[in-house]
Amino acid sequence: MAEKKTFEQSISELEEIVAKLEGGNVTLDESLELFEKGIKLSKGCQQMLDAAEKKVSILMTNDDGEVVKEDFIGEE
Fold it and tell me: Domain ranges in the chain?
């Protein structure tokens, strides 16, 4: 079974695919294959982002089930 890629690995691979396609040094068949792989990676990334958003929403829900929106205060 294939190892599941992290979001960062998928984005990196997607960037490589885009560079190859923009370079124009691939055949039509290779372009279609790369495009298909890129679409799959893109969908996988979107699913990971959706899952992360759900986790954040759950973590930000108060005891009454209301979503509490607060400004993020990072390290200064």
Answer: 7-59
3-state secondary structure 9-64: HHHHHHHHHHHHHHHCCCCHHHHHHHHHHHHHHHHHHHHHHHHHHHHHHHHCECCC
Question: Could you read off the pLDDT tens digit of each residue along the chain, which spans 76 residues?
Answer: 567 889 999 999 999 999 999 998 999 999 999 999 999 999 999 999 998 888 887 777 777 777 776 655 544 4
Tell me if the pTM is above 0.85. Answer: no
